[in-house]
Amino acid sequence: MLRTLRKFKSVVAAFSVAVAFFVPGSALAEAGSDRSAELMRELAAATSPEEARSLEREIVLEWSKSGSAAMDLLLKRGRDAMEVEDAERAAEHLRALTDHAPDFAEGWYELAQVYYAQERLGLAVDSLERTLAINPNHFGALQGLGAIFEQLGDATLAYRAYAQADALRPFDERVTNAMTRLDILANGIRL
Question: 101, 116, 140, 185: which sits with the fewest CB atoms below 10 Å from its CB?
């Protein structure tokens, strides 16, 4: 019981740091290439779910370019290991990636997904925080934080994370459904 309480406290402490990244238009420089910035603007103006999904795929492709063939290979190997549900091997590749390319947001994001799959929520939050420090527009990282906050029962932080993701990524039913589910818990009853 004491071990579970300590684990929960460390996750909550990590959340308090992560909350700092829930500020639209933060002072952090816009991450990514000019192409990804252009695609993000197009995504915000998308008029259909199909258009949004297509733009999201292009954005993720842009974000997946580290500028190094070796780092791209580590990312691919990490993703491939997760596809066959080998989280330990994925973590090895992705930790090597983040060690060698600490400013590559997509490496941290993929590592967060591995940690989440391993139920290592504190490490997942830390990796999502690093993702957002590098790329504040990473809608996947915001959605991931929302899912973790929701899992831990913090409706307010979960709603805020999902709302930030929704502002960047329209037409995502999972995010919209989560916001609907959490609205009264997070925002109270509106009269």
Answer: 185
**104, 66 Cβ separation under 8 angstroms:** yes
Predicted confidence (pLDDT) per residue in 65-83, tens digit = 999 999 999 999 999 999 9
Report pLDDT digits (tens) over 119-178: 999 999 999 999 999 999 999 999 999 999 999 999 999 999 999 999 999 899 999 999
CA distances from 63 to 38, 138, 166 (A): 13, 9, 19
Closest CA to 141 of 155, 159, 162: 162
Model-level pTM? 0.81
Number of Cβ within a 10 Å radius of residue 177: 11
Burial class (CB in 10 A: 0-12, 13-18, 19+), 50: exposed
The amino acid occupying position 8 is: F
